[in-house]
Amino acid sequence: MNVRQVFVSLLMFGVAGLLLFMYLQAWTEEQNTVSGEKLQQQITIQDFMLPPPETQRRVTQSSHIPPVLGRQEVAIMDSQQWQGKADLFGAVAVSLVPGLSDHQKISKLPFSQFKEVYLPPVLHPLNKTLVTGDQWKDVDSIQEKRRSFLYEFCKKYNSMKKLRTHLVHIVSRIYVEDRHKVLYCEVPKAGCSNWKRVLMVLNGLATSVRNISHDDVHYGKHLRKLDSYDLKGIYTRLNTYTKTIFVRDPLERLVSAFRDKFEHPNSYYHPVFGKAIIKKYRHNANKEALETGSGVKFKEFIQYLLDSHRPVGMDIHWEQVSKLCYPCLINYDFIGKFETLEEDANYFLQLVGAPAELKFPRFKDRHSSDERTSAEVVRQYLKELSKEERQLTYDFYYLDYLMFNYTSPVV
After folding, report:
1. Domain boundaries, given as residue ranges, for the chain
2. What does each C-alpha distance from 224 to 39, 197, 199, 200, 323 come to in angstroms?
3. What is the C-alpha separation between 361 and 358, in angstroms, rounded?
4. What start and end residues bound the annotated signal peptide (predicted)?
């Protein structure tokens, strides 16, 4: 073998070795990535799921119903006994490990800390030391019944479905007001604009709710959300702040959202949602409708809502409250309702020690000349749907109806 052949052989051997090294390095990185993804997927939180509505309606009254619950609540009581005892946020010590990003800290939480996560075993009493006067007696009584009802509901339906969701996602709709130690989970179309105005005043960002514009409320980024804190900050606030959620009859909230987003000019919802809805669900749509997305009909909107292959994703304005605020994973201290918004909100402000002059605003945020979406308005919109569509729409919000003890509509 001459020198040239030796040189060529060595060169080819070197190239082959280099290629093998590059392949092994790429393979190793891929395995690490896959392992990390699998670990992330293991971080689960146990959720609950109800039996099908038709099964649920056949449940009869049980002798074990707590005294604060009435006949409408019996549907939630027929289930297995609550088994979980784990603390949802018991693994927060990982957040103290130095040098880790938030996502790394989350990925290092052991699976055992999450696989048996349920509602905390104690319904903590409201701190009412700052409440003055007897005018809140009736409101307080209703509030205690709501809290007990939701608590009992979540105890009964806690282990029938696994929900793969990170803690950071679960708290992503919660606004923080540190001065008065308030956590507010935003439910759109249930007074959220005025609630954010109140939080801004409580936080010293404004002197009056009337001085805050709609754009400042929704686009000003003046308020922090709970998911912007590290895990220790999230854990501390969840365990020490007063947590509140305000809800609304699901179909009233749905119709209100439709009227707001599709019956008025809107530079986002028309081109993003309207165009996609009209394109898929309107036969022989004209060019203007396809180009602008304006003029979506309520029936078309419902077809989109019920479609398992929606042409565009969900939106917080019509997403179920159970998926916005996770009421069976976060132990809310106060449950307000849009139907009694003013008295509930003002009682809550007393509970957290808000300034006496701060009252929840009565004014409507936008489209003030429009009639408010009431039960009668909802009935008019439901007439546009077939009986099957009405039933499926109710079923879509079935969990919200039960969770917050709303009377089911006649569909």
Report:
1. 46-242+338-383
2. 29, 13, 10, 10, 20
3. 9
4. 1-26
In whole angstroms, give the CA distance from residue 274 to residue 282: 11
Angstrom distance (rounded) from CA 254 to CA 320 = 10
- Residue-wise pLDDT for 42-78, tens only, equals 333 333 344 444 444 433 333 333 333 333 333 333 3
Residues 213, 214, 217, 219, Cα dihedral to 10° = -110
Question: What is the C-alpha to C-alpha distance for residues 209 and 47, in angstroms, rounded to an integer?
Answer: 37
CA 387 and chain centroid, separation: 28
Residue 242 bridge partners (DSSP): 182
Contacts of 341 (CB under 8 A, 6+ apart): 190, 191, 246, 360
Q: What is the DSSP string of 173-188?
A: TEEEETTTTEEEE--T
Which phi and psi (to 5°) does residue 349 adopt? -65, -35
User: How does strand 334-337 pair with strand 242-247?
Assistant: parallel
- Would you give the DSSP letter of residue 117? B
Q: Please, what is the end-to-end C-alpha distance for the chain in angstroms?
A: 92
Walk across the sheet containing 182-185 and list its strands.
Answer: 224-225, 174-177, 182-185, 242-247, 334-337
Query: What is each CA distance from 351 to 40, 128, 200, 239, 345, in whole angstroms?
Result: 39, 6, 17, 17, 10
Mean pLDDT of the region 137-160: 88
**Residue given tokens 């029938």 in the structure block:** 160
Quick check: 171 and 238 in contact, CB under 8 A? yes
- List CB contacts of 172: < 8 A, sequence separation 6 or more: 225, 226, 227
Q: Is the Cβ–Cβ distance between 331 and 243 less than 8 Å?
A: yes
